[in-house]
Amino acid sequence: DDPDIGILKNPRLVSETNKTLMSTINSHTDKGEMIVTIGGDHSLAIGTLSGTLNAFPEACVIWVDAHADINTPESTETGNLHGCPVSFLLSTLHAGKDIEPFKWIKPCLQPDRLVYIGLRDIDMGERKILQENNIRCFTMHDIDRHGIGKVIEMALESVNKDLKRPIHLSFDVDALDPSVAPSTGTPVRGGLTFREGHYICEAIYETGCLVALDLMEVNPTLMTTEADVIQTLSVGQSLVRSAMGESLI
């Protein structure tokens, strides 16, 4: 039994899962191993980013997503914690500090070390948070205007100018257009193409700074056809391979 806290759904389950995930990640970072986490909803980033930033306090985060996932317990309209992970980690918000299950979370992420790519569905409360914290965001409009190559250059310039910081890449497959990755929980039309998504992974690999990768929101139970599931799983697998260095030639 995991009753709501306010309107937050499954708070104890989310907290304990992420606490365990953080510990598991740190057991691998202690050995100098690369971390790849396959999810699952994006609330898991509470654990993955906590683990990465424990091991690499100077790391930056590149968050690829249709959504900002930066609602606070006060601003969320749904209570779904997969829309809140960044607010729990951001040093200027520390959104879970007064909620018992989440008091263990350290506000370890600085706003100037976070950049978003692919945004196109942002709540009003999130927009206010992004503006007040001066967090760099590249929406689909920016990608249409500049091209994905230039956007990656600008994103890296904003959080990792000299490529001296480790990178945690947190990639939600709903950043991709639903025609590319249909089996996901909150699809939003007008997203990244297959190649744009893979270019992001290839370019981050080429920096030599990648220490952790999340691939989130791949959900085979959400389908209209079996072909949708196979397509989404295949795309997810190829994104991971690209981030690990697989190239066309």
From TrEMBL:
EC numbers: 3.5.3.1
Domain of life: Eukaryota
Pathway entry: Nitrogen metabolism; urea cycle; L-ornithine and urea from L-arginine: step 1/1
Pfam family, one: Arginase
Signal peptide positions (record): none
Regions that span the bilayer: none
Alphabetical GO biological process terms: arginine metabolic process; urea cycle
InterPro entries linked: Arginase, Ureohydrolase, Ureohydrolase_dom_sf, Ureohydrolase_Mn_BS
Enzyme class: hydrolase
Any one GO CC term of the record: cytosol
Keyword Signal appears in the UniProt entry: no
Reaction it catalyzes: L-arginine + H2O = urea + L-ornithine
Cofactor(s) named in the record: Mn(2+)
Amino acids binding Mn(2+): 42, 65, 67, 69, 172, 174
GO MF: arginase activity; manganese ion binding
Cofactor descriptive note: Binds 2 manganese ions per subunit.
CDD domains per the UniProt record, alphabetical: Arginase
Alphabetized UniProt keyword annotations: Arginine metabolism, Hydrolase, Manganese, Metal-binding
Family to which this protein belongs: Belongs to the arginase family.
PANTHER family: ARGINASE
Protein name as it appears in the record: Arginase
Organism: Puccinia striiformis
